[in-house]
């Protein structure tokens, strides 16, 4: 089957990696809207416009399922994406909320995601008695995109962001931006051993696997990726190196305009 997923940059790699592990033998189209990175500090109107363009572009790509690999877009414009795509849509926030069991939950997310309270609302729908606290992390995505993941700056930012959550004695911590699992080693060092780290990509991938298994009766156990294509809206030269570093692939990357609706492949 042919799957589509997107992010503003490399954050969606965390979703893509889980999908490639759990759901082999599929063709995947990954779109990085690098021209408008980062999404997490944009207004709701800007995110709605972006979601409109991205979902419309994907509607011409003959995909069989779509993965919302950006939490900010998920929080603000999931309805726009579902309206424009006539295929099953899998989202991070709903997937993560459905597996929460702990009574006190922290969420690290972008400022735009936190403003919507999307994680809080989704978790309370599933577990009404849960205490949820969300923390905006504006500095993380730019640092991660620059490869600045071992610096004093990102360490100090992590300390500041985690402090109010740990004061509330959380039992689990949701990485509410797809970029954040890329700094899991840093966060793990700072968390007490009793705090469970939750990557929404894992829950999303499991839901996707159930869907694919139900659709493909002769599902091969061989872990072969049929096809992997990358598309960016800017910075074409830098992206293959990032894909190689994080995913151990060195793919062809194509430059596209989201204002052009024609099929690219």
> What is the end-to-end distance?
15 Å
- Cα Rg: 18 Å
Summarize model confidence as the mean pLDDT.
93
Identify low-pLDDT runs: none
Give the ordered list of helices and strands: EHEHEHEHEHHEHHEHEHEHE
Strand content: 15-25%
Structural class: alpha/beta
- The strand order across the widest sheet is 4-3-1-2-9-10
State the total count of DSSP E strands. Answer: 10
- Helix content class: 40-55%
Provide structural commentary.
The protein is α/β, with parallel strands linked by helices and 265 residues long. It has helices at residues 13-22, 44-58, 71-84, 92-97, 111-116, 118-126, 140-145, 152-167, 184-190, 200-215, 239-247; strands at residues 2-7, 27-32, 65-68, 89-91, 104-109, 131-136, 172-175, 196-198, 227-232, 253-255. The strands form two sheets. Strands 4-3-1-2-9-10 form a six-stranded parallel beta sheet. Helix 9 (184-190) links the parallel strand 7 and strand 8 (196-198).
Which key phrases capture this entry?
single chain; six-stranded parallel sheet; globular; four-stranded parallel sheet; 10 strands; 11 helices
The gist of it:
This protein has 265 residues and is an alpha/beta fold. The protein has helices at residues 13-22, 44-58, 71-84, 92-97, 111-116, 118-126, 140-145, 152-167, 184-190, 200-215, 239-247; strands at 2-7, 27-32, 65-68, 89-91, 104-109, 131-136, 172-175, 196-198, 227-232, 253-255.
């Amino acid at each position: 089957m042919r799957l589509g997923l997107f992010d503003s940059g490399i954050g969606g790699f965390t979703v893509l990696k889980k999908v490639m592990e759990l759901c082999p033998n599929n063709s995947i189209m990954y779109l990085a809207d690098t021209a408008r990175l980062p999404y997490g500090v944009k207004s709701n109107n800007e995110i709605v416009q972006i979601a409109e363009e991205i979902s419309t572009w994907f509607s011409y790509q003959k995909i069989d399922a779509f993965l919302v690999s950006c939490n900010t877009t998920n929080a603000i414009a999931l309805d726009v994406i579902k309206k424009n795509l006539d295929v099953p849509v899998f989202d991070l926030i709903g997937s993560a909320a459905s597996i929460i069991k702990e009574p006190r939950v922290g969420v690290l997310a972008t400022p735009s995601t936190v403003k919507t309270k999307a994680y809080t609302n989704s978790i309370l729908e599933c577990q009404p008695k849960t205490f949820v606290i969300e923390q905006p992390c504006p500095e993380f995505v730019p640092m991660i995109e620059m490869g600045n993941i071992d610096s004093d700056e990102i360490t100090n930012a992590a300390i500041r962001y985690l402090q109010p959550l740990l004061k509330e004695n959380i039992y689990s911590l949701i990485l509410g931006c797809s970029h954040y699992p890329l700094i899991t080693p840093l966060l793990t060092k700072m968390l007490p051993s009793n705090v469970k780290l939750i990557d929404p990509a894992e829950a999303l991938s499991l839901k996707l696997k159930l869907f694919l298994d139900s659709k493909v009766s002769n599902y091969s156990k061989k872990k072969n990726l049929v096809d992997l294509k990358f598309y960016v809206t800017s910075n074409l030269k830098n992206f293959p190196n990032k894909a190689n570093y994080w995913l151990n692939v060195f793919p062809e990357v194509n430059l596209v305009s989201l204002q052009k609706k024609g099929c690219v492949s």
